[in-house]
Specification:
Elements: E1 11-14, E2 31-35, H1 46-53, E3 58-62, H2 71-83, E4 88-93, H3 95-108, H4 117-120, E5 131-135, E6 147-152, E7 157-162, E8 170-173, H5 183-201, H6 209-231, H7 236-249, H8 263-275, H9 279-293, H10 295-310, H11 317-334, H12 351-362, H13 375-384
Parallel strand pairs: 1-8, 2-3, 2-4, 4-5, 5-8
Antiparallel strand pairs: 6-7
Length: 386
């Protein structure tokens, strides 16, 4: 196991009817900017619960944060933060709203002139404006980590950011909220969380036995609860396991002491930026091709995954590893997730070259756990995913 340091300061408030506990978590003298997305929270009762819990606070609202949090929209919210002298941010939504809140947290105290520099120059945020979250869509794990991904439509870019100052102070996780989430978004959430685990697990064996089993347990839980969640989102037990699995998939614990990959995300982000494809679905497009292209480097871990997670016990290491890839693709299909780029767009020709060129321009010359995945290899992987 590799050396590591681990600190996650986010307080989790988990369970039924916990939104009411909001009033105990935000300072009474705070001036709050309430941030949310397209307005679904006003249809499913979450908005009323939140407003009731913070009725004694000074609150300004900003809605309309899109599914891929758009930089230009968020800059409108930043102006409100400055003009209204906001001191606390409250994100009520899924990963997009929470990620959008993180760039606002960073930008509110940023000493530079152009907040986009935080993303384009990779500036880590050591101290941001304090914020909390009420999770309405399990998927990204953003409610318990310090990372974010922001889209800029004018340049068709999707860039990452983070830093120790961007952990939520608290996150409220009430599994009952998933009862009103559309099937497509539930499938996305399951796929997103599943792939988050794979990015931290599907590398090579390094003797971190407990870390491997942490990862495998999250994967097994997602597989077990997925059909239940899709069949009946009001099944509280399944909803609770689903929500907590999504959080555990990316709260920092699984990646400690082990090598991690994240090349699938790097490529997937570009597909979202170029075509607007749902983030989770881009991961399902790239992951199988990525594992097949890097088969020799990953086959030991793929075989272990096949044995432990999918109960694939017959054949050689190569046989088990390949079967594990095929079973993963089948799982995505069972969720209703297509796994080829051509399933989403007819304009895929030239995509691989565009992504390879972007990575070269950014200096991303060696992705993956071995830092050997050069832009020309990325081009081949993306072409395999057509």
């Amino acid at each position: 196991m590799n050396n590591f340091e681990f600190k996650n300061p986010t307080k989790i408030i988990f369970g039924k009817d916990t939104i009411a506990k909001l009033e105990n978590e935000i300072p009474q003298d705070a001036k709050v900017l309430l941030l949310y997305g397209g307005g679904s929270i006003k249809k499913n009762g979450i908005y009323e619960q939140v407003k009731s819990a913070i009725k004694n606070l000074k609150v300004v609202e900003f809605g309309g944060i899109p599914a891929n949090p758009e930089y230009a929209v968020l800059m409108d919210a930043l102006k409100i933060i400055k003009d209204e002298e906001i001191t606390y941010l409250l994100a009520v939504g899924g990963g997009s709203v929470i990620d959008g809140t993180k760039i606002l947290s960073a930008a509110a105290l940023f000493e530079g002139d152009i907040p986009w520099d935080i993303l384009s120059k990779g500036i880590k945020t050591e101290k941001g404006m304090p914020f909390g979250t009420v999770l309405t869509l399990p998927a990204t794990g953003s409610e318990m980590n310090s990372g974010a991904v922001i889209t800029r439509a004018e340049t068709k870019e999707k860039r990452t950011m983070g830093g120790p100052g961007l952990f939520p102070e608290f996150s409220i996780l009430d599994p009952q909220v998933i009862s009103s989430i559309p099937q497509r978004q539930l499938a996305n959430g399951l796929t997103d969380a599943f792939t988050h685990v794979l990015e931290q697990y599907m590398t090579y064996p390094n003797g971190a036995l407990l870390q491997d089993r942490f990862a495998e347990s999250v994967l097994q839980t997602i597989i077990e609860v997925a059909p239940k969640v899709l069949k009946d989102p009001t099944d509280y037990k399944a909803a609770a396991d689903f929500m907590w699995s999504c959080t555990m998939a990316l709260n920092g614990l699984l990646q400690k002491g082990v090598p991690t990959d994240w090349a699938v995300h790097a490529m997937g982000h570009e597909l979202t930026a170029l075509f607007g494809i749902d983030h989770a679905r881009t991961l399902a497009v790239i992951a199988p091709s990525h594992y097949k292209y890097n088969f020799e480097a990953k086959k030991e871990k793929l075989a272990q995954y096949g044995e432990r997670v999918w109960n694939i016990t017959e054949g050689s290491t190569d046989d088990k590893a390949y079967a594990a890839i095929e079973r993963t693709v089948a799982f995505f299909h069972e969720l209703g997730i297509d796994t080829k780029l051509s399933d989403y767009t007819k304009d895929y020709e030239g995509t691989a070259e565009t992504i390879s060129k972007r990575f070269t321009e950014r200096g991303w010359l060696g992705l993956g756990e071995h830092q050997t995945l050069s832009p020309d290899k990325v081009e081949k992987i993306v072409k395999m995913a057509y």
